[in-house]
Inverse folding.
C-alpha cells in the first residue's frame, strides 16, 4: 500500500480526532503537501457536512410531558408474567452465544474422549460415537481410525421424520 | 418529579434523535424511544456503574431500533416523502442548507445512500455524526471493540462516498 493510500484510509479517523498526537501530526503534514490527499480530505468533509445536515434536518424537539405520559402508561400496564422470562431467555440464546456453543461442545467431546484414552492406556481399536447436541436434531459424530490416525468430526442435523432412523444408526457404530 | 422521570427528561431528546437517525420515521422513532425508557425502567436493576447511564440507555435504544429497522418494510419513496414532510413542518425548506440544485441532488442521493446502509453501519454513522460519540463509547453501546467501530465507520463512509462521488 502506497503512503497516499494508507493516509486516505485513515483520514476519517484523523478527522474524528481518534488518532494519537504523533500519528495525527504526520497525517496533517502529508495532507497539507499532497494534492490528492488534500482533495480526499475535502470530499470527506463535504460528505460529513451533507450527512450531518440530512440527519439533523428531520429532528424536531419532542415535548416532554406527552412523551413521559406515554412511557408512564407503558410502565403502569401490567406486563404478562412470562415477559420477564422471555427477555432473560432472549439474552441467553443470542446468535454469538449459539455460534460458540457448537465448537465448545465439539472441543469438550474431544477432551472427554482423549482423557478416556489416557485413563485406559489408550485405545487401540477404531472408535465411533454419536452425540446429540440439542433438542433440534443437531448431532455430532466422531469417527476415529487409529491405524491411519484419522479423526472425522461430522456435524449434522436430522431431517424431520428421519429422527428414528438416525437414532437407530446412532446405536450401531458405523464400520470403518 | 421522580428520579426516573428526571432521567427520562434528561435523555429523551437525545435518545429520540439517535433512533430517528436509524429509523428515518418519526412515528416509529417515537414509539421505539418510549419503549426504550420502558425497558430501561424494567431493567434498571441490571444497570451497573461500570458504564455511564447514557451508553447503557443508548445500547437499549440502538438494539431496539436495529430490531425495528429489520422489521421495517418501508420503501425509499415513503422514506423520502417522510423527510420532505418533516422539512415542511419545520419550515426548513426556505433555509434549506442544500439550496442549489446540485446540493439538492446530493441530499436526495445521500438519503438513498443512508437508507442502503446495513443497520450496523447506519448505527455507527448516526452515533458518530449526530452525537459525536468517541469510538470507545460507540463500541460500548454496540457491544463491539473500538477497532470494529473504526472499521465499520470506514466502510460505511466508503459506501456513502462511492454512491455520492459525482456530487462531492
Amino acid at each position: 500500500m502506497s503512503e497516499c493510500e494508507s493516509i486516505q484510509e485513515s483520514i476519517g479517523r484523523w478527522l474524528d480526532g481518534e488518532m494519537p498526537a504523533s500519528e495525527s501530526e504526520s497525517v496533517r503534514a502529508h495532507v497539507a503537501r499532497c494534492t490528492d490527499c488534500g482533495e480526499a480530505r475535502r470530499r470527506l468533509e463535504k460528505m460529513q457536512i451533507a450527512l450531518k445536515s440530512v440527519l439533523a434536518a428531520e429532528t424536531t424537539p419532542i415535548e416532554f410531558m406527552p412523551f413521559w405520559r406515554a412511557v408512564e402508561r407503558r410502565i403502569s400496564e401490567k406486563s404478562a408474567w412470562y415477559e420477564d422470562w422471555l427477555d432473560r431467555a432472549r439474552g441467553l440464546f443470542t446468535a454469538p452465544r449459539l455460534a460458540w456453543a457448537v465448537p465448545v461442545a465439539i472441543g469438550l467431546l474431544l477432551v472427554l474422549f482423549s482423557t478416556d484414552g489416557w485413563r485406559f492406556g489408550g485405545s487401540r481399536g477404531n472408535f465411533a460415537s454419536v452425540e446429540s447436541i440439542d433438542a433440534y436434531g443437531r448431532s455430532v459424530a466422531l469417527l476415529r481410525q487409529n491405524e491411519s490416525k484419522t479423526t472425522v468430526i461430522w456435524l449434522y442435523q436430522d431431517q424431520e421424520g428421519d429422527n428414528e432412523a438416525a437414532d437407530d444408526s446412532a446405536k450401531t457404530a458405523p464400520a470403518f | 418529579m421522580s428520579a426516573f422521570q428526571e432521567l427520562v427528561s434528561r435523555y429523551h431528546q437525545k435518545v429520540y434523535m439517535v433512533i430517528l437517525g436509524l429509523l428515518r420515521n418519526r412515528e416509529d422513532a417515537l414509539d421505539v424511544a418510549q419503549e426504550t425508557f420502558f425497558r430501561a425502567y424494567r431493567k434498571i436493576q441490571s444497570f451497573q456503574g461500570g458504564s455511564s447511564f447514557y451508553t447503557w440507555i443508548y445500547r437499549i435504544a440502538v438494539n431496539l431500533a436495529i430490531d425495528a429497522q429489520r422489521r421495517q418494510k418501508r420503501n425509499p419513496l415513503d422514506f423520502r416523502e417522510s423527510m420532505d414532510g418533516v422539512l415542511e413542518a419545520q419550515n426548513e425548506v426556505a433555509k434549506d442548507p442544500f439550496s442549489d440544485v446540485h446540493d439538492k441532488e446530493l441530499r436526495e442521493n445521500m438519503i438513498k445512500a443512508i437508507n442502503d446502509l446495513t443497520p450496523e453501519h447506519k448505527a455507527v454513522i448516526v452515533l458518530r455524526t449526530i452525537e459525536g460519540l468517541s469510538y470507545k463509547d460507540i463500541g460500548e453501546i454496540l457491544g463491539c471493540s473500538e477497532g470494529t467501530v473504526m472499521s465499520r465507520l470506514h466502510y460505511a463512509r466508503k459506501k456513502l462516498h462511492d454512491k455520492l462521488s459525482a456530487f462531492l
Remarks:
- Residues 14 and 70 of chain A are 42 Å apart (CA to CA).
